[in-house]
Amino acid sequence: MATTKRHRAKRIALFNHKGGVGKTTLTVNIAAALASLGKRVLLVDTDPQCNLTSYLIEETVLDEWLDDSDSEDGVTLWSALRPIVQATGNLYKILPFEFGIKNAYLLPGDIRMSDFEQELTQMWSDCFQRKIRGFRGTSALSELVNTTCRDQHIDFVFYDCGPNVGPLNRIVLLDCDYFVVPAACDLFSIRALKTLGQTMAAWVSDWRTISQLAPDGIYLFDGEPRFMGYIPQHFRIYRGQVSSGYAKYLAQIEKHIVSEVVKVLRRIDKRLASKSLSQNKLGQIKDFGSLANAAQIEGVPLKDATNGIPGQRRQAKIAFEAIANRIIAMTE
Q: For labelling alongside 242, which of 64, 67, 160, 234 has CA 20 to 30 A away?
C-alpha cells in the first residue's frame, strides 16, 4: 500500500483548539460547495468524538461501524490504522463512503482513534531515535489518505479534527498543505489565538528535525502547513450591518490573527503565511440560527436543509461558494 509520491490533492484542516467554533459545520459546508463546483472532495474524520461522521451518517449505521471496527470487516479509520498501532502488519485498506453529496466521500471516524493518539506520543519520540516504527506510525494516516486520493482522483481533502493540541492533531496539521482558522465572535475564541501560532511553529520546527533523521525511501508527509486564512462566524446582522456588539470582536480577531499567527509563522518561514491583510480573511459566515440546527438534524449542508427559510438557504449557498472559489483560486 505504500507509495513515496504524494498525491496532488490539497489537504486542508479547519483548526482552532477552542471548541464550539463550528469547525465541523464549516467543514461540511465548504466541502459541499467545492463538490458542487465539480471538485472531488474527501472528508477525513480524525476526531475521536466522530462529530463529522455523526453529522453525515445515520446513527444506527455508525453504531454498526463502531461495533465492527476491530474486525476484519471494519470500515473506519481505526480499522485501517489498527495493524500499525498493534504492530501486526501494514495499513488495512478501507473504501471511502459516498454520503449523498455528489463528488464527496468520507473516511469514517472512530472513538478508538483515541487509542491511536495514545500510541502517537511514543511514535513521535521513536522518530527522534530513528526507529522505523516511529516514522511509519506518524505517517500512517497520511499514507492512507494518500492512497485514497490516488484511487478516487481527489482534488481536496478536509480533515475534521478535535479542539486540542494533542499528538493526533499534530500529525493531521503537519500532513496538511493549508490550515484555516475558524473563530467565533467571542472573547474565548480570541484568547485561543494567542497560542495557536506558537503551537504550529513548534510542530513545524520539530518535524523539520525529524525529517532529517528519516531513512531514505520511507513515506513522510511534508510538514509545511500554510496559513490559508481565517473565517469569523456566528455574528449577527442588523439592518444590513454587523451589529456593534460583534463588530469589536471582528476587529480583535483580525489583530490577533496578524500578531499571533501570521507573524509567528513568518518568523520561521515566510512561505507559511502571507503578510497581506486582504488575504488573511478567507470569508465570513453570519449566524444562521435555526437553519444550522435544521441542517445538522437532516445531515445536509445549510443550503439543502428542507426546514430552512429559503432566503437563508440562498445566503448560505452564496457565502460558502464564495469561500470555495477563494480556496480554488489560492490553490491553483
A: 160
**pTM over the 0.85 mark:** yes
Say if residues 96 and 154 touch (Cβ distance below 8 Å): no
Helix axes 113-128, 187-213, angle to 10 degrees: 50
Query: How far is the C-alpha of 27 from the C-alpha of 12, rounded, in Å?
Result: 10
| Each residue's pLDDT tens digit, 12-28 | 999 987 666 678 999 99
Q: Which of 257, 1, 290 is nearest to 150 (CA)?
A: 1
pLDDT band at 2 (very low <50, low <70, confident <90, very high): very low
Q: CA–CA separation, 242 vs 244, rounded Å?
A: 6
Q: Which residues contact 231 (CB under 8 A, 6 or more apart)?
A: 14, 26, 180, 181, 182, 183, 281, 282, 283, 284, 285, 323
Which run of H or of E encompasses 298? helix 290-298
The superfamily in CATH containing domain 10-331 is P-loop containing nucleotide triphosphate hydrolases (3.40.50.300)
DSSP states of 178-203: EEEEEEESSHHHHHHHHHHHHHHHHH
Higher pLDDT, 113 or 289: 113
Residue range 203-261, pLDDT digits in tens: 999 999 999 999 998 999 999 999 999 998 865 444 444 555 667 778 888 888 999 99
Q: Edge-to-edge strands of the sheet including 41-45?
A: 97-98, 104-107, 41-45, 156-160, 10-14, 178-184, 226-235, 285-286
Three-class SS of residue 210? helix
Instruction: Please state, as a whole number, how many other Cβ atoms lie within 10 Å of the Cβ of residue 15.
Output: 25
Quick one: pLDDT at residue 238? Answer: 44
Task: Provide the residue ranges of all domains of the chain, joining segments of one domain with +.
Answer: 10-331
